[in-house]
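Most newcomers find our protein records easier to grasp once they have seen one. Nothing more is needed to start thinking about how sequence determines fold. Here is such a record, shown just as it appears in the course material:
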Amino acid sequence: MDELDLPPAFMLNITPFAERCKSNSISAWNASFEHPFVQGLIDGSLSKERFKFYQMQDARYLETYADVCSLLSTRMVQPKDKLWFIDGAKLALVVEQELHESYGKELGYTSEDLAALVLTPNNRAYQNHMWTCSSRRSLLEGMAALSPCPWLYTDIGLRIEKEYGTIPEDHPYKNWLATYADPSFVTYTNELLALLEKEANLQGEAYQALAVRAFDLSVKYEWMFWDQAWHMQTWPI
């Protein structure tokens, strides 16, 4: 995608360290857009059963995303950076919850169903990876592990906007698709990448290399998240 072709409000500002991370993971990064689950979302052919499976697993993933944001906020030195990650936790729990609640009514699941949900192996592994990086590794590694989730979704949202234009009103997944190309979400991603860059500039090559690897694993887990929903993954035993 060529960000220069997008209106200014929709532009992603890819910082040097973010670009290094993405370049290292470009094959897996592009594979998410090409996954049949994502393609089914885009053209509206994805079954409601698969979408429900995804939404329920995603709701539980976002709980850990919020926890990781909260934890990273305690490791920030600047108060404004602490507040940014606190707001990020709120975004995951409140704004995303509103989207899930609307789909819960449509698809037939409740908050009680979410609480009782068994996490898929892929979902659990992804959450454990993010939690480990944010709690036991460097601050840069924790931020790098967090970044692919909003950034990849933003990239997909902007690609859809660029390649397919306005989403039809009768598209079954219009609300989901529109969320991730919204200017406010692009702004959120840009702010996260700026914070990632600031921390990367404070660290040496050894810590940067570990963060690049953590980022790469999260990109691969993102693809695995689409895949576990596509196959409606269960535990093998």
The CA atoms of residues 54 and 189 lie 22 Å apart.
